[in-house]
Queue: 2 jobs
Job 1
Amino acid sequence: MVELLHSISPLVIYLVVGLVIGVESVGVPLPGEIVLISASVGASTGLADPVLLGVAAAAGAIVGDSIGYAVGKRYGTALLGRLGRRFPKHFGPEQIARAERSFERWGAWAVLFGRFVALLRILAGPLSGVLGMSYPKFLAANASGGVLWAGTITTVAYLFGIVAEKWFKQVSWVALIATALVAVGAWLYVRRRRARRQEPAQEKVDA
């Protein structure tokens, strides 16, 4: 198993991470964050360079968001309507309305820190174009958010992988993968519960 994973070229890993995150940032629901976490944990075993991995993730985020911005500006709200019919879980009326409220309230800050929120990470580019945010302002927030997000996720997952590998070195490499998956699952569970608690509060504010 270890030999098989280490036979993968680091360049392929960088390209896959950058591509998945880039496509997600355009507006297609893909597990970009999970892919980055998995690759970063793998980097702790020598599969890839964590710095180059972070660079690939940041580049994918910035380029993908910029393409999403251009698409949103060109096709406007009609695009969101089509996405809503195809991906109602991610682009339904409630999700779009919640994202729009965030943009109206926080502006460019929603783009910068929205990279850490699943919904805004997917919608930031297209929605910024639809709402007419100036591109220089969007690019500054997008680039800052992409670098901050990629650097944070890569560093945390990489350090976690180093610690976990030491713990499970005598067990098997499979245990390391299982631990990484459990960590990702726990993170997603906590974030989902937090989002559910925030929804009633947001509904009261809107009412």
Job 2
Amino acid sequence: MKEIAMNRKKSIHMSNREFRKYGHAVIDWIADYYDNVEQYSVKSQAKPGDIKTSLEKNPPESGEPMHNILEDIDSLIMPGITHWQSPKFFGYFPTNTSGPSILADLISSGLGVNGMLWETSPACTELETHVLDWLATMLNFPDHFMSQNEGGGVIQDTASSASLCAMIAAREKKNNGNSNLFGCREHLTAYVSSQTHASIEKAAMVAGVGSKNVKLIDVNIDFSMNIPSLKKQIIKDAKDGYIPFFVCATIGTTSSNAIDSVYEIGKICDEYKLWMHVDAAMAGTATLCPEYQYMHKGLEYADSYTFNPHKWMLTNFDCSCLFIKNRDELISALRIMPEYLNNQSSKSGEVIDYRDWQIPLGRRFRSLKLWTVIRYYGIEGLQNYVRHHINIAQQFLSWVKSDERFEIMAPAPLNLICFRAKGSDKLNKDLLNYINNSGEIYITHTRLNDLFTLRLCVGQTHTDVNHVKEAWGLIKSGFEKNKG
């Protein structure tokens, strides 16, 4: 009986033999998926509740064979997938991946590392520090963002988390570390443009600053932040008893890809002793190319900078890089040391504990996939990849400009084209629905100058000019069917 019980206990877990068998099957499934991804409707055609009602009501009492589960992924899960990795996905923002990134992420999952402390896996920490220094060099950052100086980089899950960490560091710097005392946050004010990502407002909510203390600054005709309006608002708030402390400059707003003047905003932040955070989540990857590094002019003023390799740098979600000018300002704002985490390595001061650079304690081994991508493609390969997407986006821009039925709604120096059919908002809404319900491509919308505006963003791994031609053909045919 004892022997039977032991065998039963072992049978609970997947054997290495079975893992190898189904591991090969999963890799084959992923490879087949990419071979056939263009055959799927880009946007899931599922209706609300379709997926949930197709699933078993109750969890299984006994375990099921792995092949049953894999079969159900095809039959039950895939109908509810919108195919972000399709080369005909032009919505929201680039969020691409690649074979090297997937394989490295699989290894990371297999290792199951929690890199909260240097001691919990030295390679997890030291590779991250090294790769972030690589990126700082690749993006031509000021030296103060390098780990051998006072700054450094850390990988967060998303730019939302990165911006929250930056705001907390700025809050503590302004309040000399006393923000958790009563009455020390109510009058802090942060400044963003009306085009800035909503994550900054959410950061203010979470950080205790409050959304009411986030001041929206008017934008110029190109949707970049209006500098005189920023300065005027800062002066007014200071006179009214508020405490200005934080400004977010954006390189590539999500709505229109607008590029704020980091230099002009930086000068104001320097004058009034405000923390300048640069949100380059959308377009930061473009600065891998020297010809787009003009967007970084004034970065010497920045206290923090974030960009997303999981947007447009062939690294699968999630992977957002936060760079800090003075890491002590971030660490002192987030450090807490319960006894169960005390260890000699941390006490020595010779190592980095990245748990002090983020909100959660635990952290994944994300640097492995980023390191693998950079090594596999090299700087040159990544630059060519970005340039290719910009080139074909510019071709789409030229087609729209040459068609008198459509109009361009915002400057388009990179890979996002904002446009609309000349006519009513209803016409453009109907056109968007026609396009996305076709399943052939997927695009999204925004509002610019209070007009319903279509957005086509080029940036998926295998997108080529033929996919953009197909998109333009569908848009034109959709216009003819919906012009009424």
